[in-house]
């Protein structure tokens, strides 16, 4: 039984953090929001204090039920298993569950890492070129969205898997936001666009949005 309030170590614009914020909202879990700035003072994720929380020096990390958890997808699965409610984020049906995980995995391991701050900084440094960095991001995000779009043709209803919100949707919305930030042309991905627009209307997704957090800069809060 949970006694202490969970603590989410996260950053407003981090797509991995955002996935967990949506899960916490859907599971109706009251939590303390602990901002970890990825840019302030060279990045608070590298501080000695935070490295003790997450040795991978990334957000998110969630302290819950006496456990310190990191890696967004296992966190979401933990919340789903320990807090069953009307939102079952991993569908019961094995084929649907596998397809939801397929989409989540494409985004988690085939897209997000290639736009991750320390990775793109290294690409820019090694190539001495901001253009090469942009090309790199565009290549991997487009490749990932092509695969997701193909899956959605078969699986999507209102959301990624029929009309049930799943772990795939929690990954999709922050990834589409990142794509917009990096100026990726989404014209070839109508199902991604349609499902994303549908999800953006869900109140729990609105509350978890990058522009609605305590560490969101004022100029973005107004958007
Ligand atoms: N697979 C991890 C990825 C975590 C991750 O890469 N987080 C990014 C923000 S979305 C980060 O903290 N980056 C810090 C850096 O690149 O220094 C997860 O899903 O939690």
UniProtKB/TrEMBL annotation:
Molecular function via GO: glutathione transferase activity; maleylacetoacetate isomerase activity
GST N-terminal domain location: 4-87
Pathway recorded for this protein: Amino-acid degradation; L-phenylalanine degradation; acetoacetate and fumarate from L-phenylalanine: step 5/6
GST C-terminal domain residues: 93-218
Cofactor field: glutathione
GO biological process, one term: L-phenylalanine catabolic process
Location in or out of the cell: Cytoplasm
Gene3D superfamilies: 1.20.1050.10, Glutaredoxin
Lineage: superkingdom: Eukaryota
Main location per the UniProt record: cytoplasm
GO cellular component term, pick one: mitochondrion
Keyword Membrane: no
Membrane-spanning ranges: none
Keyword terms, alphabetized: Cytoplasm, Isomerase, Phenylalanine catabolism, Transferase, Tyrosine catabolism
Catalysed reactions listed for this entry: RX + glutathione = an S-substituted glutathione + a halide anion + H(+); 4-maleylacetoacetate = 4-fumarylacetoacetate
Similarity section: Belongs to the GST superfamily. Zeta family.
Annotated protein name in UniProt: Glutathione S-transferase Z4
Originating organism: Brachionus koreanus
Lineage: Eukaryota, Metazoa, Spiralia, Gnathifera, Rotifera
């Amino acid at each position: 039984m949970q006694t202490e309030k969970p603590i989410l170590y996260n950053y407003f614009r981090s797509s991995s953090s955002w996935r967990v914020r949506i899960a916490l909202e859907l599971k109706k879990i009251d939590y303390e929001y602990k901002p970890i700035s990825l840019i302030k003072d060279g990045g608070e994720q590298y501080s000695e204090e935070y490295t003790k929380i997450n040795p991978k020096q990334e957000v998110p990390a969630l302290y819950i039920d006496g456990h310190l958890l990191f890696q967004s997808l296992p966190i979401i699965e933990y919340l789903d298993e320990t807090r069953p409610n009307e939102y079952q984020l991993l569908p019961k049906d094995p084929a649907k569950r596998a397809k939801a995980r397929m989409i989540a995995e494409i985004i988690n391991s085939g897209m997000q890492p290639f736009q991750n701050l320390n990775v793109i900084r290294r690409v820019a440094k090694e190539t001495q070129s901001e253009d090469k960095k942009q090309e790199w991001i565009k290549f991997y995000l487009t490749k990932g969205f092509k695969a997701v779009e193909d899956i959605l043709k078969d699986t999507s209803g209102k959301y990624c898997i029929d009309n049930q919100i799943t772990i795939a949707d929690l990954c999709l919305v922050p990834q589409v936001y990142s794509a917009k930030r990096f100026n990726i042309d989404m014209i070839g991905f109508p199902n991604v666009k349609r499902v994303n627009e549908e999800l953006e209307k869900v109140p729990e997704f609105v509350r978890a949005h990058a522009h609605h957090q305590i560490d969101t800069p004022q100029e973005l809060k107004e958007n």
